[in-house]
Amino acid sequence: MPWDRNQMAARAAEELEDGMYVNLGIGIPTLVANYVGDKDITLQSENGMLGMGPFPVEGEEDPDLINAGKQTITELARTSYFDSATSFGMIRGGKIAAAILGAMEVAENGDLANWMIPGKLVKGMGGAMDLVAGVKKVVVVMDHTNKHGDSKLLKACTLPLTGKNVVNRIITNLGVLDVVDGGLKIIETAAGVTEDELRAATEATIVN
Prior knowledge:
Elements: H1 5-13, E1 21-24, E2 42-45, E3 49-52, E4 75-81, H2 84-92, E5 98-101, E6 105-107, E7 112-113, H3 128-134, E8 137-142, E9 153-154, E10 169-172, E11 175-180, E12 183-189, H4 195-200, E13 206-207
Parallel strand pairs: 1-2, 1-5, 5-8, 6-9, 8-10, 12-13
Antiparallel strand pairs: 2-3, 3-4, 6-7, 10-11, 11-12
GO molecular function, one term: CoA-transferase activity
Organism: Primorskyibacter flagellatus
Family: Belongs to the 3-oxoacid CoA-transferase subunit B family.
């Protein structure tokens, strides 16, 4: 059975270690905040917040507390706030250990496309280009295929790139893959998903 969005987010949370400063991208990655648990993780949002808490319970939302995706969030006792210049100074200065991002496409060499589809309305590129260039580890969380059943893990991206050779690990609804020399390596499959099923859904080269 493929993982759902929350299971993918929970699996991504397993990538985090005590003491890490981590940026969560828009979409499924924002759910990771709900699965940090007892780990000492500081979540950063590029709109100027360090120390994001989980999503609020219904009825306790604060419209002034939002993440980069304009979703309401909660603060912690140690939360701090700052302007965008300071926020991107952290990112560009290599102070953020990891970014967990969504994607439209990932290529077998680690190229990432996650900011626009030509011809569609784009609100802006956001902070993704700075993040993939400035953080130490990039984890992508995404559906393995699009709504037509076509693989989103490709030999080469067809959409405009966010960054070249930047992705380290990919977590999809079918499993976990690492970008290695020559292609992608299967690390784990979702419960009930076979390696053969994952391979069949992947255009990118799978290496042993």
